[in-house]
Amino acid sequence: MKRILVVDDEPQIRKFLRISLGANGYEVTDAENAAQGIAIARGSPPDLVILDLGLPDMDGQEVISALRETLDVPIIVLSVRAQELDKVEALDRGANDYVVKPFGVAELVARIRVALRPRTAKEADEVIEFGSIRLDRARRVVTRNGEELRLSRKEWDLLAFLARHPDHVLTHSQILREVWGPAHTGDTAYLRVYVNQLRQKLEADPSRPALIVTDPGVGYRLKRGD
C-alpha cells in the first residue's frame, strides 16, 4: 500500500484527505505544520507528499526546497494560492504538480496515480512511446505511426526533455535552462516557437494539441496517456 504524507494546518482538510485517500487504497500520515512534516518525511520517507503552502511556521515553498535536499518522492502542492507565480515557483523548487483549492477528490486521486506511476522498462531504457509517437533516444529517431519524422537538433532536445518527465508540468524556465542553457531562462517566446514547430510535426490536430499541452503562464506537459 502506498503511503501519502499530508502536510496541512487545516484539521478538516487532513481528516477529509485521510478518509478520501484511504477509501482509494492509500495509507495516509498527516502533519499540521512544516517542522512536523519535514521530520516525518525524513524519518520515514513516504511514497508521495501532499503539501499546503500556507503553513504556520514556514512557507510551503521553503518546505519544498527542504524536502528536495534529501527526498526524491513526488510532491503535489494543494493550495488556495492560484497565482501563476506561485505555481511556477513551486514547480521550479521541485514540486511535481499543483492543485488549487477547492478541489475534487477524483482529480486529486488521478494526479496522485500519475505521480506514483512507475516508469516502464522502455522509459527506463532508451525507447519511450506516447500515443502514436515513438521516441528512440539511442538512435535519436522519432516516428509517428511508424513513419520517421525529421526534427532539428533543438526540436529533438526539447522533445527528449519533455519525454523524460511525462505527465508532469515543466515550467518555462526549467525547459529553457535544460535545453538552451541558464542564459536563456527568460526566452519564453523562443520556447513557444519550438513548441509550435513540434506540434506541427507530432499532433494530429496542431490547433488542438493533445500530446504537448499548455499550462497557461506556467509551462508545458507531455501527455503520455494510459
- Average per-residue pLDDT, rounded, comes to 90
Give the number of domains: 2
Q: Estimate the strand proportion.
A: 15-25%
- Strand pairing plus helix content: what structural class? alpha/beta
Which radius of gyration do the C-alpha atoms yield? 19 Å
CATH class of the largest domain: Alpha Beta
Helix content: 40-55%
Enumerate the strands of the largest sheet in spatial order, edge to edge or round the barrel. 2-1-3-4-5
Give the SSE string.
Answer: EHEHEHEHEHHEEEEHEHHEE
Distance between the termini: 21 Å
* CATH homologous superfamily caption of the largest domain: Response regulator
Number of helices: 9
Description:
It is a single chain. With 226 residues, this protein is of the alpha/beta class. The protein has helices spanning 11-23, 34-43, 60-68, 84-93, 105-116, 121-124, 153-163, 172-179, 188-202; strands at residues 3-7, 27-31, 48-51, 75-79, 97-100, 127-130, 133-136, 141-144, 147-149, 170-171, 212-215, 219-222. Helix 2 packs parallel to helix 3. The protein starts with a strand and ends with a strand.
